[in-house]
Amino acid sequence: MARTVPTTGQKLNFLLILVISILILYFDLSSNNFQNIKNGFKSFKISSYFVLKEITVEPLKSLQNRYKTKSSLIKENEILREKLKLSDLNNFITSKDNIFSKNEEILEDLDKYNFFYDIAKLRSINPNMFKCCDKHRMQIEVIAKDKTDNIEKFVFNKMGIIGQIIYQNKYSEVLLLTDISHSLPIKSESDNFFCNARGSGREGFIICKYNPLVWSEEIIKNQIFYTSGMGGIYPKDIEVGHVTNIEAVNSNEKSLLIKLNASPLDSNIFGVLKN
Question: The domain containing residue 137 runs over which residues?
Answer without folding.
Answer: 112-275
